[in-house]
Amino acid sequence: MIILKIKFYYLPVLLILVFYFITEIYTYNIIVGQEETNIEEAAITSNKLIDSEYVYLIFDDDYYKMSKRGQNHFSIYQNLIFQSKNGTILDFQNSDKTTLYLEFGSSPIERKLIFENITFINFDYEKNFNSYLLGFYYLNSLNNFKIEFINCKFKNIKNLMVHTEAICTKLIQSSPQFVFNKCSFINLDRIFNVEGYMDKNLNKCFNMYFKECHFESIKSIGSIKNGNIFFDNCYFKNIEGDMDYQSAIINSFSYGNQIKFLNTKFSDIKIQSNQPLFYLDKTTLEINNSIFKNCSSNFGFLIYMKTFSTKSKKLISINIDNSEFDNVSSLLSSEYNYITIKNSNFHNLISVASTPLILNSLYSKINIINTNFKNIIISKSTLVSDDSEYEFNNVNFSNIISNSKAMIIIVHNQVSFSNCKFSNIICNGDSEDSSLIRFESLKNGNTMKMYNTTINDCISNGAFLRIYGENTNLAYENISFSNITSFGSLISNKSIKSNVYINNANIFNNTNMNIRKCGIIKNINEVNMRVTNSKFYANSVKNSGGSFCFIDNNKLNVTIESSYFRNNNGINGGAIYINSEILEKQNKIFSIKDTIFTDNEAKNMGGAIYVSCNELNFKNIENTTFLYNSAYAGGAIYINNTNIILSQENKNTFINNTAESHGNNYASNPYKITLITDLNDLTITSGESKYLKFQLLDYFNNTVKDFSKLYSNLILQVINNNNNNNNNNNNNNNNNNNNLYQKDIDYKFLGNKCFFSQGYCDLNNFKIYVSNPISINLSFALESYNQHKDIINMETQNLKINVSNCKENQYKLKFHKNLFYCEDPVCSNDCPINEGKASCQKISNDKKNSISNNLCICLPGWIGEHCRNKNFVNMKKKYKYSYIIMPIIIGYIVITSIFVYINKDEKIVNDIGYLKIQMVLLGFLLYYLSYNFNSFENYLSCALNYTFKHIGIILIYSLFLFYISIGKVLGINYKKVKETNFESFQRYNGNNINSTFPVDNETKNDSSMKDSLKESVVTTLEEELINDIKKKLNIYNKLYKRNNSSFEIDNFSSVSINNYNTKSRKSEKPNSFYDNDYNSINSKIVKIYNCYVEYLIIFIIFIIIWVTMILINFKSEDKYIQQYDGKWRYNCPLSNANSIMDMIEFFLLIYLILKSKNLWNYIFIFKFLKRIIYSLLIWVTLGPIVNILSFVTMYDNTFYYFLFNRISCGICYLIISILFMWDIFYYIIVNKGNKPECYFISLKSEMCTRHNSYICECIKNEENEILVSNYIDLYRFCSKILLYTNGNIRHI
């Protein structure tokens, strides 16, 4: 066991020793001497060591010369390593005889050839141009070898450095055949040349790999016929190029070859010859995480890829990822490729060539993703070629100047922009022919898409986006176009047929500077468009169409939904401009729904929308809001066509739109002319000047004011339409006003033309001269304005006018030959005819019209010499009967007041209120005193009239309002009580008495109280009502009466309160029976008190307002007006205020009537209240309403106005005063003034069967009399605000 353990312990060591000895056995080291022939000798020695696994050529010295005898030939059957520790230099002595030949023998085993720390210098050809530094040959087609250069250097090598062949047919090893690791190549002609025969599999089995290599001052890197080349973390600098080679870096010839660059930098490369950096034939190229800086070639492109035959159309891929191109030539020229560029940057690029700056790739599919194009100048070309299909995703274009037709041109292919951004781009090409993007489609259709794309801060010398072709599909979604200035439309769509979809677009702060090009988005020909959820604002167009322009469309199908147009402006159509006269009815649909147009402005027509096409259907504009839009004509919408279909049922809203000429909301071109002078069958005298006025209207009956004469000069002329006259003569006569005299005619027109100004045409001096009285049918026609002459309708086609003989007061004078004219009499200059104060009358039959034959006569309202004085109405003389009757009425009121004073001790006077009665009479007195002041005389008289009138009325109204209010509060609606189902009484009587009426201990022991409560169960409704009143009056007497008048209503009151005091009341529960009644009485008293205060405040406010109005107008200038008969009277400035007060009083009366309507059913109120209700009905019928009606209808007729008001209102207020005093007069006169039961309404007394009456005194009810007396005491108490008792004034 111990032996086994020891053996196991030493087994690894034994294995290592075995491996070492085997290696030593199969490894052979050759120390190479410094002699020139030593390398030849080392080759001979190495070639013999067939059985050795590894052969090391050890170069211990720093410098070796290669032999010039041409025998540097190695046959490799083993792994051969050229090794130097100190960086040995192999000097090839500038001779092509020093070539190092390395031949791999036939072997199925992979063999390695390694050069480590070797520097190769000074190789040149003498006679053999095809010579090379290193030549590699193979005796089989397996390519099962690996040649590796580690930390080697190559300097000053002319011609070819490495020559080899790719002859394999299949891949049998994963590692590359050539590896250059950390090598440097300086001052070389060409590094490698890989030959091979044409086989589609060769590129799969031959690979060359450069890692961390440095290339500098090299004419060409190399050429490969078959195979793949990989560069990893390499650096290229000052690659020179040479016309002897097809490319400066790589030349690849075969289909399927792959060239890859990873983490590689190309710097300061300037190819003077006409060759690219890469010449690739059917080769796949991949550039990843690499940098190209300051690289250029006179060839024009860095990469040239040879095209396939157009028949195969198989695309070769080019992939560029995470790379940077800084100050380089055009990137690529190719055909039929699938190109992907992503995560890359192109900046500081300048192109002066006519080929595309980045990609000149024809017939390709190109994806550009997460890439930036920045600081680029394009002089004659585009950014990419036009004959390929493009997808731009998350691409940023910024700080680009293009002096060509377009920065991007796409012809007959698809293109899409997704999540892209264009900013600070200047398109400086030829005027009107420079764009950012130019897109042209085929007949079968091509699509241009823009999703989530932003374009801002750009300038273009033409339309910014140009669309051409035959069948175009445009899709713009989630886009933002802003701060773009273009000499044309932002989007100019000239495609023969196009389908346009715009969703969630924000297009704002853009300007179209071209006065000949319309719209921010312009569309012609056949257009199908849908715009949704988009915003267009602050766009400006020097032509028409602040946002959209549709012109010359043969088919139009447009839908705009849920969009927003704000602050756009243009010449016509601040937001939308449509001008397509060639449209047919079935080929146009224009729909706008759920959209807002606000603050848009058009210099001329259509603040929001301008339309000029036949039969536009406005039914398709629904739920759209137009607000604060403005234009010269048509603040919101302008329609320039004759067939308009307008619907008012589409819930469109127009708010605060304005137009200078006509149509704040919508307008059209001039549509019709109408004669607005009120004439039908007209008679004038010959030569009489007649005024005719015409109005120019649009389709919507807006007056076309046209301050700026945009519609040219409209001239209207009057012509004769009589068929029996000589038309030729008439036409000649009418068309030339300067030719006043025509032969052989019997009429003549003068002043028959007028210009339209501000919507009106005034024939101020139209005259007809005739030889004999005649009837002429006049018609009207436009002389100018040919543009719309055929569509402006004359609403008045014919006007019959009778030309008669002169009037009796006129002179008949000769005009020309047999034509005559009539002339009014002429008076002296002192006769104020032109001032409207006098007329001149003919007083002689003399045919001569002279001052001596005429007389100046004053017109009504004017008197005195030369009719200079006004003739005023004599109010006192005309209305003397009024001044006689008024003192009688005033005397009646004064006598009535004296009567009340004499009988002030009567109970009826005291109960109703002595002061209140006198205040009411004072109101009547003030009202009738106002009749003594004439409001048409002067301001003082007017002010006193209106002041007395309205103070009196308000005083009467206030007292009536108080009487009705206190009656409503203290009275009882007997009908309402009677109509109830007595549920409250049934609950009161049916439930436990003690639980219903909580009482104190004394009350519980009082047997009479209990008996009384039991008896109440069977009492009638009247008895219940009386008992309830008694209880409340007892509470009132206890709380508010003085000690000398405190009493109880009777001995069987339901609740005794004689011993009640404040302390005991506080000890009761809050919801006790007593407290409920107490609160009820107290709330009524407070309510009446509040009415007192409110009425007093209102009365004071009225007085203040009225006095203020009088003082304001006190110093106003006196004004006089003429009434119907021409006489003058004073016009009081308070007349309007008087009418307003009449109206207020009318509505106050309506309120009072409504308030008092239920008093008919009340009991425990004064009878005179019901007469007040009668008074109110009379008052509202003959009172303020009469004043209002007379002011409206008779104000210009002083007599009728004055008479109508005084009679109707005088009778009205006299009747009211009589009805008010009726009860007082009657009951005092019949000696019943001290019997409250006569003038106060309580419950009905028991009917007397003898007299069949309730009011006779046969049956007396003393209890009811006491109840009424005490209830009146409650009225009197509640009517007071202050009480004077024991020398003190007490506030209730």
What labels would you give this structure?
52-stranded parallel sheet, ten-stranded parallel sheet, 1292 residues, 25% helix, elongated, alpha/beta, disordered N terminus
Walk me through this protein's architecture:
With 1292 residues, the protein is α/β, with parallel strands linked by helices. The protein is 25% helix and 37% strand. The protein is built from 23 helices and 92 strands. The strands form twelve sheets. It has a 52-stranded parallel sheet that branches. A ten-stranded parallel sheet has the order 34-37-40-43-47-51-55-59-64-68, with no helix packed on it. Helix 2 links the parallel strand 1 and strand 2. Helix 8 packs antiparallel against helix 9. It is elongated and about 170 Å long. 38% of the residues are buried.
Strand-pairing-aware structural class: alpha/beta
* Number of contiguous helices: 23
Kindly report the average pLDDT value.
79
β-sheet strand percentage: 35-45%
The shape, in one word, is elongated
- Rg over CA atoms, rounded to whole Å, is 59 Å
Uncertain spans: 1-6, 723-745, 980-1019, 1041-1075
The total beta strand count reads 92
Helical content band: 25-40%
Task: State the oligomer.
Answer: single chain
Q: Cα distance, first to last residue?
A: 132 Å
